[in-house]
Amino acid sequence: MADREILSRIDELIAEEHELRARATGSGLTAAEQGRLGELEQRLDQCWDLLRQRRARAEFAVNPDEARPRPVNEVESYQQ
Fold this sequence. Notes:
Helix 1 packs antiparallel against helix 2. The longest helix is centred in the middle third of the chain and has 29 residues, at 31-59. This protein has three helices and no strands. The protein is an all-alpha fold and 80 residues long.
C-alpha cells in the first residue's frame, strides 16, 4: 500500500470517527457504535504506524513497500 493510499484510508477513518463523535455529544452512541469507535481508533493507530514505517524506510534507502502493518496489541502499547 502506497503512502497516498494510506493517507486516503486515514482520511476515511477520521471522517467516520468525527461522525460518530458528533453523534456521541448529541444523543449518545449505541454499544455497537462505541465498539466501532474503538475499532476506528485502533485502525487509525495502525495506519499511522505503517505510514511512519514507510517514511523511515524511505529516509534510510530501504524499500518502503516491505513495511507491514503491525498487530493492534503492539501498536496500542506504544508510549505517546
